[in-house]
Amino acid sequence: MHPSTSQSGVGLPDAMHEELHMGHLFRTLLATILMLGTMGWGARALAQDAPRPVEDSTVTVPVSLDLGAGRALLLQQLPNPLVAGKKRQKIPVHITTLVPTKVIVDVPRQKLIKVVEKVPTKVKIGLCLMNPSSCLSTIMVDKVVEKWVTVIEKVEQTLMKPVNSLNPFDVEVEYGAVATDVDFDLQGEVLSASVTIEAFVKAGLDASIVKVGALSCGVGEPKPRIRLTLTGPVRWSEAGALAFTQTGWKLDWERPCQLTALDIKAEDLLDLPVVRDLVRRNIESALSRLPASYSLQPTLAKAWETLGRPVSLHEGAWLQFHPVALAVGPLEGHGKTVSTVASLKARPTVTYGDQPSASVLPLPALDLVPPASRGFKLTVPCTVDLKMAETRLGPLLLNALSELRLPVQVDRVALRGDTQGALDVTLHLKDELVDRIRIRATPRFDPERQEIEIVNPVVTVEANDALKELFVPGTQALVLKTVGEWVRFPLDPIWRKSMQELRQASFRGEGYEVKVQTETLRLVELQVLPDTLRIVGHAEGTASGTFNL
Predict the structure, then answer these.
(1) Cα 356 to Cα 118, 218, 359, 457, distances in angstroms
(2) CA 47 to CA 40: how far, in whole Å?
(3) Separation of CA 508 from chain center
(4) In this structure, what is the dihedral angle of CA atoms 185, 186, 191, 194, given to the nearest 10 degrees?
(5) What does the pLDDT look like over 462-501, one tens digit per residue?
(6) At what angle are helices 493-503 and 14-35 packed, to 10 degrees?
């Protein structure tokens, strides 16, 4: 039977019908809200007494850093030049000297020799009586003659022969190196920092000593170019800055330096190990000193200050996050972009009334171990003042009992709790000083009607024997039924409003936005005190924030 009608069928006054109708609308609204995922219960503005321990919650803050935007800045922070100076050192030098060398040479000479040659000779043949010339004949005869010829003689000579050698010289070397570009590539937690270096080397040596080879590079010509790449892991420091640790390095000559006159590598003259260590130290230092775009510190400081101030949940209700600790998860690099998720450990509470004061603690050191849970938990207590409920429910219950046509008339209703967790509903009888009907029951949350109801009632008639005899079992059952229908404590509108707002709350301000989304809400405690029913709701979900600098 609904409380709007009695067992006898006599209707209630119009004003009471209207009040009951409004109560039905409230219950319908509450059921709708619960289907949407918010659930609450209460009876008046949430009291601030008897605080419970507040559970730790997490507000996540996604952070993304752009390393590419700071290349020029990091280049400016490197010393310019990286190294420069002069030094003297013993260097093997390729030189050419003329050394006297004995050699056997072929020397041509003219020599007069006697040789036998066939020479034509005229001889007389016959008597030649008639014509003497006709008896002459030419024949070849051997004859010894002198003749000049060229002969080759082997002669030992001493010649000045050029010889190449390595001779140590005390050489003054002038050198310098300038960083012209910086580049980053971050994959996961491994950073590759490449520095482009242009250099020059000049050996102060008399060029007349060196017949061949180059004594300098980068002087009066394009400078040699080196790419020095340092690799190693990047971590967050406790100050929220990037901390780089070099574990490897690589040197590439993009434009080599050819010092052909010197038997030494250009990188040795440039003190490249010193340059490498200098670059490493400066990159480590520069990364830790990069401004807001490279550090978590400004973002976390703003988040910490923002979440330390109360925010309006709705009119008359304030949400305070109460941040107590900071943590950051591992970073993830993708090229020149670094992403991570910072976490603020908070102990949120909801208060009612005037705006509470801010409670901003000093910014703590950054914990490098993220919390295991990223959940957001909010405990929202409310109380039912039994005296106020008695004032509200008493007239309604008296009217309902009067329609039962009981053998006695109930004059007053009293509500009181006990330490055993039971609620006593006492019906004081009219014109009787000590006679009363006590109904002892257990309060319980009714999820269907979204109210606090009483269950397992036990009736006790504390009256004289004559009155007791009037309360037969049937009469007792009617009383219990009526009391059970009317002694209910609906949710308080302000508490219900808080639960509804917490389902998906968004708080915006200058440069920030914090979102709270409640996924579940459950009853964690229903405590019965002498003058109060204390109900504690527990909202669980997630909270995240973005903070733009």
Answers:
(1) 145, 70, 9, 42
(2) 15
(3) 23
(4) 10
(5) 877 777 777 788 888 888 999 988 998 876 778 778 878 8
(6) 20
Q: Please, which residues have CB within 8 angstroms of residue 380's CB and are 6 or more apart in sequence?
A: 40, 46, 350, 495, 498, 499, 502, 536, 537, 538, 539
pLDDT at 405 over 50: yes
Residue 127 — pLDDT band, cuts 50, 70, 90? low
Give the CA diameter of the chain.
219
**Structural domains of the chain ordered from first start:** 38-53+298-384+493-547 (no CATH), 68-96+160-291 (3.15.10)
Cα distance between residue 250 and residue 368, in whole Å: 30
Query: Is residue 291 a contact partner of residue 121, using CB atoms and an 8 Å limit?
Result: no
The more confident residue out of 226 and 547 is 226
- The first and second tokens of residue 370, run together, are 């993220």
Beta bridge partners of 113: 147
CA distance 495 to 348: 16
Residues linked to residue 504 through DSSP beta bridges, in sequence order: 517
Strand partners, 252: 227
Contact between 396 and 489 under an 8 Å Cβ cutoff? The reply is no
Indicate the length of the chain as a whole number: 549
| Amino acid identity for residue 274 in this structure | V
| pTM of the model as a whole | 0.57
pLDDT band at 287 (very low <50, low <70, confident <90, very high): low
Q: Which amino acid is located at 189 in the chain?
A: E
Burial of 502 (0-12, 13-18, 19+ CB in 10 A): buried
Show the tokens assigned to 94: 């390729």
Q: Which residues contact 125 (CB under 8 A, 6 or more apart)?
A: 135, 136, 137
Instruction: Name residue, tokens 């304030």.
Output: 318
Q: Considering Cα of 391, then 392, then 397, then 399, what sign does the dihedral take? A: positive
176's enclosing H/E stretch is strand 136-188
d(CA 505, CA 493): 18
As a whole number, the mean pLDDT across the chain is: 77
User: Alpha-carbon distance 322 to 358, whole Å?
Assistant: 9
Q: Which of 169, 177, 250, 157 lies closest to 206, judged by CA?
A: 169
Q: Is there a contact between 460 and 479 (Cβ–Cβ < 8 Å)?
A: no
SS (H, E, C) 93-124: EEEEEEEEEEEEEEEEEEEEEEEEEEEEEEEE
Per the structure block, which two tokens stand in for 451? 């109210």
